[in-house]
Amino acid sequence: MKKGFVYILANNRPTLYTGVTNNIAKRVFEHKSGRGSMFTKRYAIHKLVYYKYLEDIKSAIIREKQIKDLNRNEKINLIKLMNPSFKDLFVEVRDKFR
Fold first, then answer.
1. What are phi and psi of 69, to 5 degrees?
2. Model confidence over 41-73: pLDDT tens digits?
3. Residue 1 has pLDDT above 80, yes or no
4. Pick the CATH number of 4-96 from 3.40.220.10, 3.40.1440.10, 3.20.20.150, 1.10.287.110
5. Would you list the domain boundaries of the chain?
6. d(CA 30, CA 72)
7. What is the per-residue pLDDT across 88-98, written as a single tens digit (0 to 9) for each?
8. Predicted TM-score of the model (pTM)
9. CA 16 – CA 23 distance, rounded (Å)
10. Interior angle at CA 59, CA 31 and CA 1, nearest 5
11. Could you give the residue ranges of the DSSP H alpha helices within 1-98?
């Protein structure tokens, strides 16, 4: 079974986008290059502010749905637990999960 990641991207407002993938470095690079999704491209949402590794993609999909059900403040609090300064974590995942 393939590993999975759930992730949250943000822009400077911050507008948030939650996604799931089995290759986080590749997927975030796609978002940064404007090929990730129309929503992230339209609103310039390309800063990786949260991610979680899960043992399988099914678990990642379940977690993605749970996060999408959170309200905005709950999502921001989740991000702050991992990344209080909302820094871009792309280099970290690129180096860690090639």
1. -80, -10
2. 999 999 999 999 999 999 999 999 999 999 999
3. no
4. 3.40.1440.10
5. 4-96
6. 24
7. 999 999 988 87
8. 0.94
9. 20
10. 90
11. 24-32, 38-42, 57-68, 72-82, 90-96
